[in-house]
Amino acid sequence: MQPDKPLMEVKDLCMWFPVKRTIMDSLSGKPKRYVKAVNDVNLSVRKGESLGLVGESGCGKSTLAKSIIRLYEPTSGSVWLKGKDITHLKGRQLRTQRQSMQMIFQDPYSSLNPRMTVYETIAEVLSVHHIVPKENVHEEVARLLELCGMSMDSADRYPGEFSGGQRQRVGIARALATRPDLVLADEPVSALDVSIRAQIINLLSHLQKELDLTILFISHDLHLVHYITTRVAVMYLGSIVELGRTSEVFAHPLHPYTSILIKAAPVMDPLNRDRVYTIKGEPPSPLDIPKGCAFSQRCPFCQEICTREAPPLVDRGGHLVACHFPGRSGI
Amino acid sequence: MSMEEPLLEVKDLRVQFVTKRETVKAVDGVSFFIGRHETLGIVGESGCGKSQTCRAILRLIKKPGKIVGGQILYQGNDIVTMPETELRNIRGKEISIIFQEPMTSLNPVISIRKQMREAFCHTSMTEAEKYQASLKMLRLVGIPSPEERINGYVHQFSGGMRQRAMIAIALCSRPKLLIADEPTTALDVTIQDQVIKLLGNLKQELGMSIILVTHDLGVVAEMCDKVAVMYAGMIVEMTDVVTLFAHPRHPYTYALMGSVPDQRKVGSDLEVIQGNPPNLADLPAGCPFAPRCRYADGACSQSRPELKEISQGHLVRCHHLDRTASFAGIITVPEEASDAT
Predict the structure, then answer these.
(1) Minimal Cα–Cα distance from A213 to chain B, Å?
(2) The whole model's pTM is what?
(3) A130 found inside a domain
(4) Which DSSP string corresponds to A34-85?
């Protein structure tokens, strides 16, 4: 698909979490059950691009990110970073690889240590990963803070003294401290006040251009993903159902779920309220994913084949879709 | 709107949280009214006093908070000074409230059936009638097989179902006014869409008024007739929803609209509101938005602007209405639609 080598690649990745069984369950021979959070996902990210990952809560987008950064060890499949298989790395080797990928978390209130000053928070990363020699740490912290729009005056203060937006800036500075190639941003603005979100969004898109960062951007906010990413993957119940250039996916969604998601996001236009497409029901439990197409139960265009056979992810000229009747929804 | 008496009128409402160290003016002189069958949206970011305004309407302010001034006239009677016994006939009966997080506002150890039964305590129904009425409500809000679900508990419901159950309980008494405090914030877009449509239909069917509190301008555009934008405990702009999006006049409203990512803005920078929301215990003397406002000058930091009516029903609190007149809204109103509100 792409001529140049991907920076990060995920191949047939599955992340299943076993459900706890009681002794009675195992004695009576009940089969083991799994929450299939991520199911056979294939994904690749090229250097310098920003890839969006959208879907409803519980669709596995955060689990996928955590498997990529190896906070989880995937059940099967593999994760490749710069041509190296990192799926089962441990200890020191894993730590070395983590230098090249960092995560920005959703909640800046719980992802920063309240007992460490901003300086300590960032300096710790620098010393753990030996990014700069000891005598340059101070300088480097100042550089990182400035990059994220903060001054050295705030370095000796604790996260509790800052507002959400500033904390998120510290979180971003910390993520950038290792000079990563890949940044995974898991809902980086959803915990912030509306008037603050734009600051952080602008910061991220500037940093991306300036540092040639590769960002995997996880969000449930479609307008935001449309705004900030160049490619987008739509997930439903642990699988990718559509993947393509953001402008293309938003203009001509091929999967009915994508078009419904786009239509369901409220637009700021009181004169245009009658949006026809609605979706019934809620996503089924990832404990028992329906047979056939996972979306079939909620799909307004469901046919007999959809309940029988799971559609494969098919490449239609760089725009991938997993649907038996792609583009059927005609929007 | 209509000439008849408004259903609810709030006049110069003030809510303060007084502690030894500081006084927080959570709501600082808020006035608005809501007519029958109207939906009023209250927009603002966290800490702007929108939720406290709603809680005050039912006198649900938690200590050390207190209503320190103003009137809340419900069909002409003042809720602020009303004795508790009389208030009980309004709270949950005439005016119901639903909260943002249904998991924490529903009781986890009582079945849905019992919680719904409580909602009928204002009526003289028999047990059997209450049960039937509960089933009917659950069906109305779109809970499948209510006969089974009604005996269930909150944790057995999904997020969307919980919010539906909350709405069902709130509507049991057929309230004339429903206060919805961020009813869709905790929900996914598809479920949010369902709840928005549900509330819209119920409003039609039951003929009630709704006060919708939210930080999401998209939801406002979708649901409301009238909108009040709040900042630092004050209303800074209030008008009908079309005018708000077509001709915003307060710099805060304008900046908020510009800061929301949108396909129309791809490739350009988002409008940024500098700084942070103000500390309500330590508000600047002048306009509370002045430190973050790009149009602010000396006058703004000295005196607090009044809420001025600049055209029929359009109120704005700003010293520089001349400068804000050039604001372009994010929608344009076609000729024939401009008089349909």
Answers:
(1) 17
(2) 0.86
(3) yes
(4) EEEEEEEEEEEE-TT-EEEEE--TTSSHHHHHHHHTTSS--SEEEEEETTEE
Are A195 and B259 an interchain contact pair (Cβ–Cβ within 8 Å)? yes
Chain A residues touching residue B161 (CB < 8 angstroms): 282
pLDDT tens, position by position, B291-304:
999 899 888 999 99
| Contact yes or no for B263 and A273 at CB 8 A | no
Residues whose CB is less than 8 angstroms from the CB of residue B221 and which lie 6 or more positions away in sequence, other chains included? A266, A267, A268, A269, A270, A273, B241, B245
Please give the structure tokens belonging to residue A50.
Answer: 């920003």
Domain of A154 in residue numbering reads as 111-179
Environment class of residue A227 by beta-carbon count within 10 Å: exposed (0-12), middle (13-18) or buried (19+)?
Answer: buried
Residue from the list A165, A195, A202 with its beta carbon closest to the beta carbon of B269: A202
Query: Furthest-apart CA pair in chain A: how many Å?
Result: 68
B273 touches chain A (CB under 8 A): yes
The CA-atom distances, in angstroms, between B188 and each of A55, A58, B195 are 9, 10, 10
Query: How many other C-beta atoms are found inside a 10 Å radius of the C-beta of residue B302?
Result: 13
How many domains are there within chain A? 1
Return averaged pLDDT per consecutive 10 residues of chain A, 331 residues in all: 74 91 82 87 92 89 91 92 89 88 89 93 92 92 92 89 89 94 92 86 91 92 90 93 94 91 85 71 79 87 89 91 80 41
* Closest Cα in chain B to A150: B275
Give per-residue pLDDT as tens, B81-106. 999 999 988 988 899 999 877 778 88
Q: Does B257 contact A at CB distance below 8 Å?
A: yes
Residue A169 belongs to a domain: yes
Name chain B contacts of A267, Cβ cutoff 8 Å: 218, 221, 262
CA-nearest of A288, A277, A53, A76 to A184 is A53
Q: Which amino acid, residue A18?
A: P
Q: Is the peptide bond before B64 cis (omega within 30 degrees of 0)?
A: yes
**CB hemisphere CA count around B21 (13 angstroms):** 2
**How many CB atoms lie under 10 A from the CB of residue B312?**
8
Structural domain includes residue A300? no
- Check whether B136 has a pLDDT greater than 50: yes
Is the Cβ of B78 closer than 8 Å to some Cβ of chain A? no
What's the CA gap between B53 and B26, in Å, rounded? 8
Cβ of residue A302 closer than 8 Å to a chain B Cβ: no
Cβ of A220 and B189 within 8 Å?
A: yes
In a domain, A151, yes or no: yes
- Interface mutation vs chain B, best among A204, A268, A277, A287, most B CBs within 10 Å: A268
